[in-house]
Amino acid sequence: MKRNTSFSFILLFSFLLAITSTNVEAREPFACDSRDLNTKNFPFCRTDLRFTDRVNDLIGRLTLQEKVRLLVSGAAAVPRLGIKGYEWWSEALHGVSNVGPGTTFGGEFPGATSFPQVITTAASFNATLWEEIGKVVSDEARAMYNGGQAGLTFWSPNVNILRDPRWGRGQETPGEDPILAGKYAASYVRGLQGTHDGDRLKVAASCKHYTAYDLDNWAGVDRFHFNAKVSKQDIEDTFDIPFRSCVMEGKVASVMCSYNQVNGIPTCADPKLLKGTIRDAWRLNGYIVSDCDSVGVFYDSQHYTSTPEEAAADAIRAGLDLDCGPFLGVHTENAVQRGLVKEAEINSALVNTITVQMRLGMFDGEPSKQRYGNLGPKDVCSPAHQELAVEAARQGVVLLKNHGPVLPLSPRRHRPVAVIGPNSDVTVTMIGNYAGVACGYTTPLQGIGRYTRTIHQPGCENVACRNDALFGGAINAARQSDATILVMGLDQSIEAEFRDRAGLQLPGHQQELISKVAAASKGPTILVLMSGGPVDISFAKNDPKIGAILWVGYPGQGGGAAIADVLFGTHNPGGKLPMTWYPQEYLNNLPMTAMNMRSDPSTKYPGRTYRFYKGPVVYPFGHGMSYTNFIHTIAADAPTIVSVPVGGRHRSNTTTVSSKSIRVTHARCNKLSLSISVDVKNTGSKDGSHTLLVFSTPPVSGGNWAPHKQLVAFEKVGVAAGGVRRVGVKIHVCKYLSVVDTAGVRRIPMGEHSIHIGDVRHSVSLQPHTLGVIKI
Ligand SMILES: *[C@@H]1O[C@H](CO)[C@@H](O)[C@H](O)[C@H]1NC(C)=O
Ligand SMILES: *[C@@H]1O[C@H](CO)[C@@H](O)[C@H](O)[C@H]1NC(C)=O
């Protein structure tokens, strides 16, 4: 008995080995294997039919039990129809990641290109770069899928607004501005999903976590229990914007709902959000997935329903198509039997998930014979991909301060250089969270070592920096060197998923180390900060001994090379902060649980983000210097009046038209835009890239709840030393010059809007113009 068992184990083991090794060569088809004579002729396998007919054919063949087992991320096989099991959960936030069980590294795929964390990439303000990264990541993802080591459904990007600076997951996001986040979402998703193949998908992305989710675990409140109380106004003009852009402009194949409740309803059980907004208003062509186990969470932790069957039914009836986790697989059949949800509603969910699988080619037989079927190990971690990771980091570096200027350093004059700090020789710290296994690393110390001789001292054991035991060595190194570079900041032990920060200052004794080393340093001192969220470094900003400060976010696998290229001037920095850097005192009247974006003078609540907070900052949103200077001039032909056509199907209403603002739904918005040309002149002696940030301030008629300024466009341009570039900026009037009133209605304020770029201002007057009135 025993011997037999071990014998069959060995057999089974060699069988598994055989399967695994063939998998590395070419993945077995998920379904519709051309060698399987029983199944390959099913209509759902026929690539000459339309997706809808194929999907309906397949669903018509499934029993209720089979259907229910397809509602979960670990979807079961349907062997009698030749369909294999599928793990839906893979991640690719900034490179193929193994955070989800759908992806594994090893064998022919030991690693994947690990790009900078998203907050760093966002700082580049370069939409071309975002799409380019998406393309590379999806090449690597397809290659790993072909090799049997990844899925095709990736639950990235995270486009929640970085509303509160303490948020542990702020690093994953493109920052605090909704327009920036929306543009990032659409660009990265287009890169991932591919755009040149009709309805077909290269991989399927997912924008998450819908919505008003940006609290993980703060002062005893966690995301599994948090009820975010959000006004209609904030939903419409802040929280919805990146998701709408992701769905409508990025054409994303999926949206994920969050753990938290919004106004008392778990987002994954809210038909107004899922069916009403995502599916009907934005017309999602794809599936809605829960955050992992969030259906279980609203039953078990939030006690939102009294039975698990009701929880399952509520989620499906709200519009949820797929559960990350087992809950729907366990409880949905009983829910149907109790009449809480209809089988037809389950069919609708499956239409959404299976259509995405069809669009991915999963029902087209052998992956190797399909488009992207040729991608393999050679396409992962290729030199070009790794170089793009370094380039992304270069573009994301933000020069916060350069007094003197002390930067760039010179490899000849600055020799040796002291390289100090707990982040000076790190690897995994540079890739942040939701990362994979990197192809390899260049640490800051290694990067700087390519330019000059270094003396290395950690200064603190780790970022917590609990004591000053290692200060002496660091101070000595600074005394002996021609320049001192301190690489400090945070890592995942300080800010992470389920770990929000309590304050904004550097941890432990870091500040003390920086000040002491700067005071002792023979040459200039440069502070390099790694962090996802903003840090209150007022002390360093104000310290004349600290000549320069760089923020590098989490700069990815090649981060050290990029940092060194900026420090030594082979790359001229052009990154800009995608979030406000607040002083610690900002937190005095700011519970993380308070969702309001707008300030409230009666409670001293300061308001959030540059759009609504007017108090002191350490560095503002959009701050970032260069080794050269750029000046802007708005071309003389910029319009000063734009008339907004009102009418169409709405009844002539003198009150509406002559009032101070026009409802967007009453205006003829199509192609109504404001075009201005801006000349950007590089007056310095170095070539550089410059991001034009165009803000608008609405007239007082916008109401006192309007943002005092709003980013309406941004454009990145390279300008040679001494050169000028003309940049055309087009501002869609209804989208960008409108404001949202307290009822959540979007209106275009009439009167003088101020458009500003740096110090340059331009006024444009919006005036109503009645036309095409149909009297009823
Ligand atoms: C016309 O304006 C009045 C006053 O603001 C408002 O009550 C009414 O609903 C408007 N009618 C239409 C058709 O917009
Ligand atoms: C934007 O990124 C792309 C891709 O890396 C790069 O080729 C381009 O030069 C960047 N644009 C500017 C203005 O720096």
TrEMBL record:
InterPro entries: BXL (IPR044993), Fn3-like (IPR026891), GH (IPR017853), Glyco_hydro_3_C (IPR002772), Glyco_hydro_3_C_sf (IPR036881), Glyco_hydro_3_N (IPR001764), Glyco_hydro_3_N_sf (IPR036962), Ig-like_fold (IPR013783). Gene3D superfamilies: Glycoside hydrolase family 3 C-terminal domain (3.40.50.1700), Glycoside hydrolase, family 3, N-terminal domain (3.20.20.300), Immunoglobulins (2.60.40.10). It is found in: Secreted. Its main location: secreted. Residues 690-761 form the Fibronectin type III-like domain. GO terms for molecular function: hydrolase activity, hydrolyzing O-glycosyl compounds. Residues 1-26 form the signal peptide. GO terms for cellular component: extracellular region. SMART domains: Fn3_like. Keywords: Glycoprotein, Glycosidase, Hydrolase, Secreted, Signal. It comes from the Eukaryota. PANTHER family: BETA-D-XYLOSIDASE 2-RELATED (PTHR42721:SF45), SUGAR HYDROLASE-RELATED (PTHR42721). This is Fibronectin type III-like domain-containing protein. It comes from Penstemon smallii.
